[in-house]
Amino acid sequence: MQRIHREDAKKFAFDFHEKPLLQVEPGEVFEIETYDASVGYFKSEQDKAIPSRRPGFDRNPPMVNPIGGPVYVNGAERGDTLVVQIEQIEVDNYSWIAVGPKRGPLGDSTRWPEISGEYTTKIFRHTPGKSGKFQDGTLHFNDRISWPITPFIGTLGVAPDREVTTSIDGQGEWGGNLDIRDFAPGNKIYIPIWHPGALFYLGDVHASQGDTEFSGTAAETKATVRLQLNLIKNRHCPWVRIEKPDSLIALYAYRPLEVAVSTATFNLMEWIIEEYRITPVDAYCLVSTCPDFRIHIYQMCRIGKLNGVAGAEIPKKYLIPS
Q1: What CATH superfamily classification does 244-318 receive?
Q2: What is the pTM of this model?
């Protein structure tokens, strides 16, 4: 099985100039070993998020949130759609979160000075699940609180059309740092392709995350991701989409967040109108009346140029054309 090893998965931009690290056939299973967002800096609670101590923080923007790639997919052309199928995510034996001065929405807080006045790193221990691996294991927040590990890919996408965009705050119809919890095993991710070979990148695995990733950091971890890439020829979806076994999710990223929500909903309507033969009137009424229509706010972080990331979801059982 082909693999990108962790030491090679240290790119910090979605760059169409980069030489591919792997060349795969559609449907070929391969693996990417990823670093965590800190490139391995946080190993204990004594490792604080002090910029002067962190490698890569002397650059602007900082060299954090590394990704592996690009992966060249044989037969992929501009105008096609890439189908990403994540088969397995095996996380490391711990994850971390770091808060402190100038980090996140409470980085300047006077209400809770213990948040903004000093740097705090929390290390979360992972224990294996029934499989003997961490992918179905437990994350221990502390001695009293724990929950199932729910791993997902925080940053993935293809090289954008004309720009080179950083992995820390690059976002667009091509993917990027979106921190979407539904970039998870069992789901299909659709991404429009802009260059021959697609030039796919992946990194930034999380062991778990709440809606919005409110502090700006979730349960960050190293991982090994097993996946395959397929193609839909001569079809170009307008933005990244997710197909779950029982539902569809259309995405958008923008600031203000209200625009991301409305545009994600428009994108979902376009999807079900074009591919499920729902009439425009029915689609418009469906997203307003269906009790199972959902808006997800995946990311709402004050980091660099990051936009708010929204997803509009509808169960497939309602997609019966008139």
Answers
A1: Acetamidase/Formamidase-like domains (3.10.28.20)
A2: 0.95
